[in-house]
């Protein structure tokens, strides 16, 4: 599988009708017994979360999944839609899922929101209404055992992931990469985003308190979880391959977990 060579200075690939994607995701969720909670409304769009409670709630492990915080990364919301339609979730997991955190960005085909704010850099001192509402919703949820954030990288040579695991819990990053490799190339560069990487895995020694700009992952690792994975599909490859990569990554992570 070869890169398409479309992305010159930014994402110039396929776009999606985010309203249609979210409608289909909500329909699939309702069909399979998920509940919906709207936590922010802006114009024609609503930010909402979906929740799935397993049969034995007291024994469940808590999983959080998010997508669509950047409006030029269509693979994430489409992967969420696929996962909801497939409905192959492990039985022992309680799931909280935000299908799209920046729907206006998809309408505008921009990374940022309507005011030009990169939502994934504003979780330390939030000013964007979307982030403030998301944080308020997160603070009302129980702690998560695992968080998965679905992203794309328009410059990447293949799939890669960030692992945040400050307590050294059993890692399943390698299993995730092995699963993705069946459907999408892996970026095996020794440096990715300026950080050391090995076989598509980055384990940066980052202290959130030392960083002036916080992505969603920093807020989660500080306040809601002690293990998270940011999954990065290569957005200069065909869209179906990127969606398959993110679906395979989530499924592998949940199976191993």
Can you tell me about this structure?
This protein is α/β, with parallel strands linked by helices and 257 residues long. The protein contains 7 helices and 10 strands. It has an 8-stranded mixed β-sheet with strand order 1-2-4-3-5-10-6-9, with helices on both faces. Strands 7-8 form a two-stranded antiparallel sheet. Strand 1 and strand 2 (45-52) form a beta hairpin. Helix 1 (18-31) packs parallel to helix 2. The protein is globular, with a radius of gyration of 17 Å. The two termini are 30 Å apart. The mean pLDDT is 95.
List keywords for this structure.
single chain, alpha/beta, Aminopeptidase, eight-stranded mixed beta sheet, 10 strands, globular
Outline:
The protein has 257 residues and is an alpha/beta fold.
- Total domains: 1
How much of the residues is beta strand, in percent?
15-25%
Q: Give me the CATH architecture, please.
A: 3-Layer(aba) Sandwich
Please estimate the helix content. Answer: 25-40%
Helix and strand string, N-terminal first? HEEEHEHHEEHEEEHEH
Write down the CATH topology: Aminopeptidase
Task: Detail the topology: elements first, then pairings.
Layout: H1 18-31, E1 35-42, E2 45-52, E3 61-67, H2 75-86, E4 93-98, H3 103-108, H4 129-139, E5 146-153, E6 160-164, H5 173-181, E7 191-192, E8 195-196, E9 201-202, H6 216-223, E10 228-234, H7 239-256
Parallel strand pairs: 3-4, 3-5, 5-10, 6-9
Antiparallel strand pairs: 1-2, 2-4, 6-10, 7-8
